[in-house]
Amino acid sequence: MRLVSFLSSLILLFVFGGCAIKQPYSVSKPYHVVIKNRDLALSDTGFIKKDSSRLNLQLFSAGSPLLDLIVYKDRVCRDLLCMNKLAFNKKFFGYKHYESFVDDLFNFLPLYEKKNIKKTKNGFTQKLVSDYYDIFYKIKDGSLYFKDRKNRVLIKIKELK
């Protein structure tokens, strides 16, 4: 009977304790974030937190979480619902793009292997057009502007200093 009780306690510890262990992020910066797509329309203060294996975008309004987006190497989780990156891209951006698209975007990196990139004084711009998307993307002084007119997606991220 003691063995059953011990094993039950051990299982409960792994089930509930495993979720409670959180690794701290190595970088955390505050931003003003605007996200508009077919499912969302948010504009508020948030944080982008990073480490070597994940990126976390959190938006808050009056201290309450509005969005919790975690980008891992193999999947993206939005408010505890996880999916592979191509499925996330299709749902969030309206087109599947390529697997690391969301990583490149939220790390302020060029998209589509720097296609049509134009260097500017403090960043770069890209204009990307296909049958499936019409993207204007700009990085300048730690700020991001992404607009896909075809899929009606707008993302603006401006670092708060």
What is this entry, summarized?
The chain has 161 residues and is of the alpha+beta class.
Give descriptors for this structure.
single chain; 161 residues; alpha+beta; outer membrane lipoprotein receptor (LolB), chain A; eleven-stranded antiparallel sheet; 3 helices; 21% helix; 47% strand; globular
Provide an overview of this structure.
With 161 residues, this protein is of the alpha+beta class. The chain has one domain: outer membrane lipoprotein receptor (LolB), chain A, CATH 2.50.20. The chain is 21% helix and 47% strand. It is built from three helices and eleven strands, in the order αββββββααβββββ. The chain has an eleven-stranded antiparallel sheet. The longest helix has 19 residues. About 9% of the residues have low confidence.
Shape: globular
Number of strands: 11
CATH superfamily: Lipoprotein localisation LolA/LolB/LppX
Class based on secondary structure composition and strand pairing: alpha+beta
Low-pLDDT segments = 6-10, 12-21
Write the layout of secondary structure elements.
Elements: H1 2-20, E1 27-36, E2 41-50, E3 54-61, E4 64-72, E5 75-78, E6 81-84, H2 85-93, H3 101-106, E7 117-120, E8 123-129, E9 134-140, E10 143-148, E11 153-159
